[in-house]
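[SOLVED] Need 3D model of a two-part complex

Original post:
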Amino acid sequence: DSGVTQTPKHLITATGQRVTLRCSPRSGDLSVYWYQQSLDQGLQFLIQYYNGEERAKGNILERFSAQQFPDLHSELNLSSLELGDSALYFCASSAEGTGDEQYFGPGTRLTVT
Amino acid sequence: GEDVEQSLFLSVREGDSSVINCTYTDSSSTYLYWYKQEPGAGLQLLTYIFSNMDMKQDQRLTVLLNKKDKHLSLRIADTQTGDSAIYFCAESGKDSGAGSYQLTFGKGTKLSVIP
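Solution:
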């Protein structure tokens, strides 16, 4: 158990809908990263937050957004969902977000039908 | 941009050593990681090595880093059936524009252990 929790574990929704994925980092970790794992693209970095502030953006679509709250949990919002958004979404946390090791949550499997 | 390459498949007999190889392109990589993913599960951090090290050993795992060739390997001694999984190599280098250390992953190597 990495100490990073993600909810829900599975999510099935229809095209055009909006969903919110939730992540709680390990106790004491200030940085949260979101990654998407799909069969064709592999594991790709989406976005990073550090202590409530956005630090970096990767291959994140404009339809997707995220935030980190004062209690350091983070949410990833996916809107206008398309079939191609079906993937595993992972959250990872690290203490400082400065190259230290990242610990991953169990992931949320999103299926868009 | 950064790129991390791994072979896709490796098959070994139980009790043998497994060696999974990885090459990367980002010379500014700070840390290099190995993660394990079992079917239907998340990513488990196995080990990592700082870029100024050549080798790191942790029980059955040995990581070798050749910084000149940008080559990283993971050796698993006495491979067991429970080691069957996908192994991801990842590098973390500072994104000079953003100050971020996001991970860039390879596609993963599927290790199959034959009893």
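Edit: Residues 46 and 59 of chain A are 5 Å apart (CA to CA).
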